[in-house]
Amino acid sequence: MSTLTISTTQAIEARHTSGLYNKQPITLVRGEGAWLWDEQGRNYIDCTSGQGVANLGHGRIEIARAIAEQAQRLITCPETFYNDQRAALMEELTALTPGLDRVFFCNSGTESVEAAIKFSRYSTGRKQIIATMRGFHGRTMGALSATWNKKYREPFEPLVPGFIHVPYNNLEALQAAISEETAAVILEVVQGEGGVYPGDPEYLRGVQALCRERGALLIIDEVQTGFGRTGRMFAYQHYDLQPDLLCVAKSLAGGLPMGAVLMGERVRALSPGLHGSTFGGNPLACAAARAALRILQREDLPAQAARKGAYFMERLRQIRSPLIREIRGLGLMIGVELKQKVAPFLALMQERGVLALSAGLNVIRFLPPLVIREAQLDRVAETLEEVLALEPVAAEEAGENGR
Questions:
Q1: 222 labeled binding residue
Q2: So what's the pLDDT on residue 401?
Q3: For the chain, percent helix, then strand, then coil, each to nearest 5?
Q4: Are 354 and 43 in contact (CB under 8 A)?
Q5: β-pairing, 43-46 with 357-358?
Q6: At residue 190, what are phi and psi to the nearest 5 degrees?
Q7: What is the CA radius of gyration of the chain?
Q8: Element (H or E) spanning 182, and its range?
Q9: Which residues are catalytic?
Q10: pLDDT bracket for residue 394 (50, 70, 90)
Q11: The 357-358 sheet, strands edge to edge
Q12: Per the annotation, does 188 bind a ligand?
């Protein structure tokens, strides 16, 4: 049995929570780098990064200082007025994405996808959006319509009309589907929630060519893969792609909620009132994002992710377990596909001080902060090897007890 107890904090949350989340039986109260601590003082290696938010690691004093200083100057300022922090962030962000010179700011990944869908339909005058099987783009109605998993979709149907899904990494299927009615194709360079599936370079370049040929826009969803996660600042840059719309969020503002859509020249000029966001581009989030970008570049975290990701992948491949079907990923976005459900093994790893994510029923997903040390990655691999060595029945029982 797990030795974790339900604290006062957990009792309060359990009483008042919406019920939308499967709560883990730990209360996290502090973080530093790739470490997290619970209220009992126990530490964990964080391989979740708060679902991909903490690329810079936890407890970054530079982010805290930027937030504190800006909070004393000006917290909110809608885009109906100009603002110094917003203007500076626009300039710095677009410098990282040549060919994408305009920015719409919002508050989350799903909001950025919603905006990109609207901008695509407005720009082309077309209605159809093509998404991919296994793709995940968010839970609001437009983003949900582009998301594949029926678990998320079915309770809310009918969804937004005009969406179709085609197999990922299958250019022939896209070629048959894309037409003069297609406003945009939306995809992830590495599918995250769908199982950590990287796109084939030829497929990704072929998608771009088809979009250009048929007059459709290409939306690249980098909500999870952006800002160094895959070993480049953005995953599309591995393959010399040029998206028409780039959706980003999660780690953009160093932990504060923020999203954005960056737009290229094929996106029509947008008129006032077509879309908007009360909090989008607020000075507080912009100041945090500017500090985050400085850290990313000064510490060359994309290069760190490439190097550490290759190291971790090789370390995982040294695990000799009949339960492992495949190991795949890019940079520090890595999935270990098992031949059975991963929930019991995630629970066992958590009990041993390692936090990781699932990506579907049978994939363990590792999204550690890019500042994680190789010694910590070694411990993660050792912990995975240890729990995979347990007998399946024992693992299932231990996992159930640890939830």
A1: yes
A2: 46
A3: 40, 20, 40
A4: no
A5: unpaired
A6: -125, 120
A7: 21
A8: strand 182-187
A9: 136, 221, 250
A10: low
A11: 324-330, 333-338, 363-366, 357-358
A12: no
Q: What is the DSSP string of 70-126?
A: HHHH-S---TTS--HHHHHHHHHHHHTSTTEEEEEEESSHHHHHHHHHHHHHHHHS-
CA distance 325 to 39: 36
d(CA 235, CA 27): 33
Contact 203, 171 (CB under 8 A): yes
pTM of the model: 0.95
Nearest to 223 by CA among 183, 199, 203, 251: 251
How large is the angle between the packed helices 84-95 and 283-298, nearest 10 degrees? Answer: 40
Could you tell me which residues are beta bridge partners of residue 128?
A: 182
**Tokens 């070993």, residue?**
231
For 66-82, what is each residue's pLDDT tens digit?
999 999 999 999 999 99
CA distance 364 to 35: 19
Report the DSSP pairing between strands 43-46 and 163-166: unpaired
Are 259 and 248 in contact by the 8 Å Cβ rule? The answer is yes
Q: Is 251 annotated among the ligand-binding residues?
A: no
Q: Which structure tokens are listed for 380?
A: 């993660």
Q: Which residues pair with 32 in a beta bridge?
A: 35
Tokens of 275: 């879309």
Chain position carrying tokens 């240890």: 386
CB 57 within 8 A of CB 32: yes
Q: How far apart are CA 83 and CA 75, in angstroms?
A: 11
- The pLDDT of 272-278, averaged and rounded, is 97
Is 110 annotated as contributing to ligand binding? yes
How far is the first Cα of the chain from the last one, in angstroms, to the nearest whole number? 10
What six digits make up the tokens of 76? 């909110």
The residues near 68 (Cβ < 8 Å, ≥ 6 apart) are none
